[in-house]
Amino acid sequence: MGSIVLVNQLLTVLRVRRRALFRVVGLFCVAVAASSLVGCSLPQVQAENRLFLDLSVDYLDDSQLSEIEFEGTPVGGLSALTYDRQQGVFYALSDDRGMLAPARFYTLTLTLDSSDPNSPEIADLSVTDVTELTDASGEPFAPGAIDPEGLALSPDGTLFVSSEGVASEGIAPFVAEFDRSGQLIRQLPLPEYFIPDSVGEAQELGVRDNLGFEALTVGGLGSGEPYRVFAATESALQQDFDPDTDSIETINCRLLHYVVIAERSQIVAEHLYRLDPPPSSLTISHGLVELLSLDGASALNLNGSGYFLALERSFGASGFGAKLFQANIGSATDVSTLTYLRGDLDGIDPLAKRLLLDLNELDFDLDNLEGMTFGPRLPDGSQSLLFVSDNNFRDEQKTEILLFRLRKTPS
Known about the structure:
Strand content: 35-45%
CATH topology: Tachylectin-2, Chain A
Number of strands: 22
CATH architecture: 5 Propeller
Order of helices and strands: HHHHEEEEEEEEEEEEEEEEEEEEEE
Strand order of the largest sheet: 1-22-21-20
Structural class: mainly beta
Helix content: under 10%
Largest sheet: 4 strands, antiparallel
């Protein structure tokens, strides 16, 4: 931890000279320092290669979940997905606020048909267990007190869960660690300006209603340093949002970067993630719904890389849409000292990102995609990537798993 504190102090002193630092040290060093907080060397590579990896994503198959009820709970609202490699199962978080059944996550099993190793398909998808989320004393969360949206498995075998909170009711969001039985272990620290300071038109600070911590991932894996937790809001905080320009201006989400150890955790940086403009003027909702650290893609061997996949989801007159981006934290400005981020943001750099796949170009209708995770390696050794849709507990929608292949492409 000594090296982490020292580097954080150095970055604080040099923050005002950040642009000069980038020119001297180079973008690659900053990317590694921000993501793994360790030293780096300067390989002779092009700037574009320092920012992004050469990746390809190929659609393989999709399957709908047949279960509509399991052990007395309605199976739906699946807003996050994570893979347990040791157990060979997936955990899917329901965003039910405890109104239909207690807050919970499901265990899913997925079997692949690899008779054609070049084009595996989903042979079976089923629910095998349900686990209730409880507070530190083992009691269920009160109905409406939690809005679970993000889920990530840690190297310790624990689960991190993010809740959007309920801004309209003055209920604070959180990022918290739970054990496998679903019991709360601890909450991670949260800046006060993320917490709604009031309700309705009187609110001036904090997450907006249903636009809080939707994206959650664990990173820094294999770096030799403590692992990291990254949590991002679906859209701008109240104080960062201008309703008069929302339809035409880009929106800045906030991303918190935590370092986590056994006894404690701390925020080491905060960055902006800038949404692409809405797909049309008829868009009703548009936001960042998932982040996935590429450290977790075992087939890519990117330990402590600082690279992410980012899923942006939209809904409007033409239905649901989704775009998958590759993002890099390395050149992003630390904004952890800035409570307000509205207006002229010249000199503040968000995460660099590049479109990887427009899922609307696939040959089927998308539903409400909200969760994303890496799965097992595919027969050809490449990395599987899976998405899950949130059916909003509506009969006209579906709970669907999409299967893709993710791999590096020759440079």
